[in-house]
Amino acid sequence: MPPRSAPPSIGASPPADASSGDAALTRVFVAYTVTATLWLLFATAIGLLLAFKFGAPDFWAGEYFSFGRLRPIHTNDTFYGWASIVLVGLAYYVAARSCGTRLYSTRLAWIGLALFNLAAIAGTVALDLGYNWGDLEYREWPWPVRLVFLAALLVTAWNLIGTVARRTSDEIYLSNWYTIGAVLWTCVIAIVAVLPWYQQGLGMMAISGFYMHNAVGMWFTPLALGLFYYAIPKVLSRPIYSYALGVLAFWTNLMFYPLLGAHHFLFSPLPWWLQTVAIVCSVAMLVPVWGGSANYLLTMRGRYRDMIHSYPLMFIFVGVIGYLFGSTQGTVEAFRSLQAIWHFSNFTVGHSHATMYGFISFAAWGGVYALLPLATGKNAGRKGLAMHFWMALVGSFVYVIALSIGGTFQGINWVQGKPFIQSVVDMQPYYVWRGVGGALMFVSHLVFAWNVWRMTFGARGDARSPILPAGREATA
Amino acid sequence: MKQLVLIAGGPLLLYVVIVLLIAVIPAIELSRLPPGPGVVPLTPLQAQGRAVFASNGCAYCHTQQVRPLAEDQVFGRPSAPGDFAYRTPTLAGSQRTGPDLTNVGVSKASDVWQYIHLYDPRAVVPESIMPNFKFLFRVMPVAPAGETAVPVPAAFAPASGVVVPTSEAKALVAYLLSLKQAPIPGFEAAGAAPTAQTAAPAASASASASTAAVAAAAGGYRFDAPRGQQLFSANCAACHQASGAGVAGAFPPLVGNPAVNADDPATHLHTILYGAHGVVIDGKTYASPMPPFAGQLSDADIADIANHERSSWGNRAAPVTPAQVAAIRAKGR
Fold first, then answer.
1. Predicted pLDDT at B278
2. Is B140 an interface residue toward A (CB < 8 Å)?
3. What is the average pLDDT value for chain B, to the nearest integer?
4. A247 touches chain B (CB under 8 A)
5. Do B201 and B174 fall into the same domain?
6. Which chain B residues are within 8 Å of A246, Cβ to Cβ?
7. Which domain does B205 fall in, by range?
């Protein structure tokens, strides 16, 4: 399909902002962003401590600081504290603005925020006290806490659908397809994960395979993709490249993603057909991943020089590349021959950070830097944006590369049949580099918090408006 | 409104159908799988230990699933569906920062080893990066009546007092020692140590070849020394230590050990093949059980290990051949 300068579909670009003076929406957006930022700081401080423990296992080994207690706190709070809350806040803003309306209910948005935070706090306390539901990844919170999270999802779904129902345009903008889908699907995931009847023995393993990947790919991924569909055209003041391609990516993502969960349990006693379906669908995921990424990159076509002047766009660009790279890596990892080496190794940890950090977190930061100034009328400082971007980028590169190389050696050690302890010894330098990368990432989050402060309550900074002028190269 | 119903409801409905097909319905089937032969439920104490295991996040670093891959053979036979019958939560894990634990009740069968290792992993495995679990133990001036102090090596023991496990530690160790794969009748892993098949060729073929090699090497041993050291490191060093010094009061030293240094290797080889329990060495009784290795290691492997032990740390004993291992194996327990 040749590039078109003006796609005909009316849905191809986000409708213009209805009003800039929606104070209630701004307060909601700010509150979601600020609490999410606090969770980011907390969860990644824990992550840094965990990275340190790989080199100093006796450091803070007491009951409440033990590695096994803190590890699920790190993962759950980055998932359900940081990423969920920041992306839901952005989804509210995008829904209201793209529909040219106010939120269906500000009160519901506040109730949802309280429930998300209540779940994350209660979950953190429970895990630290040792109430861990079977070490089942990303659903370790005791079931009452996960019901609170489900309640937050239901409230959010209701509110988002209500908001879209009040839209002034005829079309429903594509972003809202993704975000409404994400919230509804995740309600299903949460219900399936909490019911006990079919989760005995191997049945539980099947649900774990389903859960650990769907909670990521049917929640964070569509929330971030929906955000891209609004933020990229907004910042560039141009329509998305192809609305049809976006719709194709939406449906193919829905068709293939839910089926690939069992690729976490290749070679396990789970039925072979389940594992093979997962591998086939992991390959099929290349359709929505490459289609979606191409759509975003083609929307940015010809404007890459502008990125130098727009950190919001740089964050979003890294997010798109993170999506493209991380998801393609996931496909490759699902092949049996490669899985035989990489599974159980630190390569997987590198992959999860390439995606949850390189894709999801960068997308969220890009969204916050692009849209929060529009809501509050305050920009962050240019130095602050630059420091956050470069430290996060370099830190995550060091982190992911170190664990990818180290994980590969770890897997090869096992294949060669060396004594197990050799793989522990050989990982040491890579654990150190992981800590170096992690430290940079954590410091960048402190800068992000400072930037959020300046965009909300603090003194405004000197960064330019995130909106680039349409149709011409920005000048320095 | 109609458009909204389609865009919200359509994908939701499709997703529910997919989830039923890919997750819920298979899980219903899998939940009903019968237990495999010899797979039994945990005792209440072991179940309590499993809860301690989960609440401290052990499964984040230790898997409990053996894949049908050559590299996983060190952990046991491939996991079968029936193995998971009583395993809720499954604790299958997704990472091997530490080794798989499917068979840890066999490979580390000694509760004393488990207690020392939990109290301070580096007391028995110097390179370990596992956190210590000292919070599962109490340090007391003397062990109370009915309690046994853990013989923690002096360098790792508290300055004063003795180390006594809490009830949580006892439950956890009971759980760990319960982790043993039930044998599947008729199943034999490819490449694992067969008894009859290679024993016979080894007896004839290598009896001439290896013995000749060993005999020809005047003053030194001719065996696969790097392999012997690797096998020792993987199978023996956790208790006997890489230095061969053992752990005082818990695991016997191999340095100067009479069985290891005897010219007749019968006791030495029999111990490796069939394990030992309550052995008295130099007047000290070692209560910890040593696991048998006849089921996991071939005659050649055991000969390599024995020769490593007989030629290291100042030990100088007559070398053994795979044929001699086969002969002791043939006599049986």
1. 85
2. no
3. 87
4. no
5. no
6. none
7. 196-331
Percent of chain A with pLDDT over 90: 88
Please state, in angstroms and rounded to a whole number, the distance separating the CA atoms of residues B327 and B152: 38
Per-residue pLDDT, B288: 82
The residues, any chain, with a CB within 8 Å of residue A305's CB and separated by 6 or more, are A473, A474
A168 and chain B: CB distance < 8 Å anywhere? no
Cα angle A175-A178-A184, degrees, rounded to a multiple of 5: 135
Please check the confidence at residue A164 and state whether its pLDDT lies above 70. yes
pTM score, whole prediction: 0.90
Which of B178, B207, B239 terminates a domain? The answer is: B178
Which helix (H) or strand (E) segment holds residue A213: the answer is helix A202-215
pLDDT digits (tens, 9 = 90+) for B6-39: 999 999 999 999 999 999 999 999 999 999 999 9
Distance from CA of A138 to the nearest CA of B (A): 12
Q: Are residues B255 and B326 in the same domain?
A: yes
In-domain check, residue B297 = yes
Domain-embedded: residue B13: no
Residue of B nearest to A277 (CA): B22
CATH number for the domain including B160? 1.10.760.10
Chain B within 8 Å of A178 (Cβ-Cβ)?
Answer: no
CB-nearest to B31 from A69, A203, A265 is: A203
Q: Which of A78-82, B165-169, B279-283 has the lowest mean pLDDT?
A: B279-283
Residue B205 falls within a domain, yes or no?
Answer: yes
Is the distance from CB of B21 to CB of A192 less than 8 angstroms? no
pLDDT at residue A416 in the model = 93
Indicate if B258 and B211 belong to the same structural domain.
Answer: yes
Residue B139, pLDDT > 90, answer yes
Work out the average pLDDT over A117-134.
Answer: 97
Q: Is residue B186 part of a domain?
A: no
Res A37 pLDDT > 80: yes
pLDDT per residue over A282-331, tens digit each? 999 999 999 999 999 999 998 888 888 899 999 999 999 999 999 999 99
| Among candidate residues B178, B209, B244, the one where a domain is terminated | B178
With bands split at pLDDT 50, 70 and 90, how would you rate the model's confidence at B223?
Answer: confident
**Residue A234: predicted pLDDT:** 95
Which residues, numbered 79 to 108 in chain B, qualify as contacts with chain A under a Cβ-Cβ cut-off of 8 Å?
A: 79-81, 83-99
Residues B169 and B233 in one domain: no
Rounded Cα–Cα distance for residues A79 and B27 (Å):
25
Count of other CB atoms within 10 angstroms of residue B285: 9
Residue B162's alpha-carbon distances to A142, B141, B146, B147, B170, in angstroms, are 36, 6, 14, 11, 16
Q: Does A95 touch chain B (CB under 8 A)?
A: no
- Minimal CA–CA distance to A349: which of A266, A406, A272? A406
- Same-domain pairing of B143 and B49: yes
Both B251 and B138 in a single domain? no
Give exposure, A28-56, as e/b (b: 16+ Cβ within 10 Å). Answer: bbbbbbbbbbbbbbbbbebbbbbbbbbee
- How many domains, in total, are found in chain B? 2
What ipTM score was computed for the predicted complex, to two decimals? 0.93
Whether residue B209 sits in one domain with residue B123: no
Establish if B60 touches chain A: CB-CB under 8 angstroms. Answer: yes
Residues B203 and B315 in one domain: yes
Average pLDDT score over residue span A328-345 = 93
Q: Nearest to residue A32, comparing CAs of A371, A318, A407, A434? A: A371
Question: Which residue of A161, A192, A419 is in closest CB contact with B19?
Answer: A192
Q: Which of residues 320-379 of A touch B (CB under 8 A)?
A: 340, 343-346, 348-349
Task: Judge whether A359 and A293 are in contact, CB under 8 Å.
Answer: no
